[in-house]
Amino acid sequence: MQKEDITILIVGICASGKSSVVERLKELGFDAYTCAQEHSCVKSLWTKLAPDVLVVLDCDYETIKQRRKVQWGEERIKVQKKRLQNALENCDLYLKTDDLNLEETVREIIKYLFTNGLITK
After folding, report:
1. Is 31 left (phi over 0), alpha (psi -120 to 50) or beta?
2. Which of 3, 31, 62, 88 is most exposed by smallest CB count within 10 Å?
């Protein structure tokens, strides 16, 4: 299978890197997208998009505060993680992005795809 034949869905808490990762994957020719599962009370919203690969990105509240000027506290992250629980339980790849930059995160995703035979080139 080639990279453009596989759909990759990226979900995660705010400031975990979803949008940047999707944008970079698209630049590299992948069919990648995100959905706002962290803001939805519908636990399985992500399943409506029927991805071939589901990736959950996560990071700590301290990392979020370093990445963005946020007006909300850790309680919001707890709510978002609860809303992501179904995706987390069904994800193909879970990545903590606290210590990963954008390119390292994308590299981990591509490595997963190759390692699991989901893409061959």
Report:
1. beta
2. 62
pLDDT in tens, 73-99: 889 999 999 999 999 999 999 999 999
Give the single-character DSSP code of 36. -
8/32 Cα distance (integer angstroms):
5
Nearest to 97 by CA among 7, 38, 20, 42: 20
pLDDT tens per residue, range 45-55 = 888 889 999 99
pTM: 0.89
Rounded to the nearest 10 degrees, how much is the dihedral formed by the CA atoms of 67, 72, 75, 80? -60
Among 107, 13, 101, 109, smallest CA distance to 52 is for 109
> CA nearest 46: which of 72, 74, 7?
7
DSSP letter, residue 13: S
